[in-house]
Amino acid sequence: MKRNTMLILVVLSILALVLFSGCATKKFVREEVQSSETRVNQKMDQEVSKLNGQINELSSLNKQLSSRIEQVSDKAATADAKAEEAKRIGTDAKGLATQANTGVTELRARFDARNNYAVIDTKNVHFDFNKSTLTAEAKATLDEAARLFAGNKNMVMTLEGYTDGIGSEEYNYGLSEKRVQSVVRYMVGEKSVDLNRIFVVGLGKTNPVADNKTAEGRKQNRRVTIKLLEAR
Prior knowledge:
Helix content is 67%, strand content 13%. By secondary structure, the chain is an alpha+beta fold. The chain has a four-stranded mixed sheet with strand order 1-4-2-3. Strand 2, helix 3 and strand 3 (198-202) form a beta-alpha-beta unit. It is elongated and about 170 Å long.
């Protein structure tokens, strides 16, 4: 009986040991599987994060390339527009050059034939001391000259600017030219006289028509002489 009891205890111990070992093995396997899953998940997370980073980088590069393409397209469009504008300007310039050459040719022909013109009328407009501004009286005289001039396409006009005897020659040449230009601006801008039919010169204090020693004489010398000439 005692022997049987010992045998049963031994068998029970062996069974307990086997059962304990089985439980331990299952726990170990479970822990190993969980650890492996964790490592796999971490690895996958790392790969996903890496791929997301690459995707973001590629997206940024794509935006940069798109922006660059737009810039290049804009520059190309601008270049085309500038080329067209340059072409148009060139065409306009060529047209203006042709007109200028035609005008110069006509002007030269008229100048060469200046001795073939007869003086039809002569008028004078006077200026205040050291001034080139047109007075109301001067404008009235120019209006009359413009009326006569507009009625005859065969006429040309000469403008000779003068000063009194006060001041240096250099200064008076400049002043006489300013007075002539005042007349030209009025005749062309206000009275629509053809500029190609006007000849101008500033002569300073030369050719006085009165004595520069008197105030009245100097007033008469501060003038622009307008001559209307017609082809013979």
